[in-house]
Amino acid sequence: VDRFLSLQLSISSGLSVTELDAMKFLCRDKIKKGKLEAVQMGLELFSILMERQLIAHNKLGFLKELLQHIGRGDLLSLVVQFEQREQRELHVQVEQPDEHEKPFDVICANVGREWKKLMRELGLPEVKLDKVEAAYRFDLEEEVFQALREWQKWKGKDAKVADLIKGLRGCNLNLVADKVEE
């Protein structure tokens, strides 16, 4: 699933009718009145904004402005998290042009909802799990990535791929463990 579309869906489902009306009001100088009046959902507004090239996966300033003006810091933080993740992935692509996946990438792509079980198996304190979950509640893959980073920071020099593999096997995630070993 395209993460930018998923972000739009999350924002749209979080908007009340009043908030959507406020966003439409703020767009009145960019979109004709007739078109705005027909908008019933955030997704419809976002489609128009995309058509007009006012928002895109790499152009989120206007969307952030709208969310800030309607006082939805929680939805604004989703956009900021999305941008940070896009930046990190772009940085990783530039930094590492080779096709070899890192263990974190394999785990993020394959562990899914079992991430907490894995982190507990690796001994990460519950407080750190709660912190990651609260910060990245709407992005499962990012939760896994950040939890792995927390584990790596927590273990320091003792953080080894062998420990990750052992933890995966301890959670019966043998297929993922096999992929990490490759």
Automatic annotation (TrEMBL):
Limits of the DED domain: 3-81
GO biological process: extrinsic apoptotic signaling pathway; positive regulation of innate immune response; regulation of apoptotic process
PROSITE patterns: DEATH_DOMAIN, DED
A GO cellular component entry from the record: CD95 death-inducing signaling complex
InterPro entries cross-referenced by the UniProt entry: DEATH-like_dom_sf, Death_dom, DED_dom, FADD
SUPFAM superfamilies the UniProt entry points to: DEATH domain
Domain Death, chain residue ranges per copy: 100-182
Name used for this protein in its record: FADD protein
Source organism of the structure: Vidua macroura (Pin-tailed whydah)
Gene name of the record: Fadd
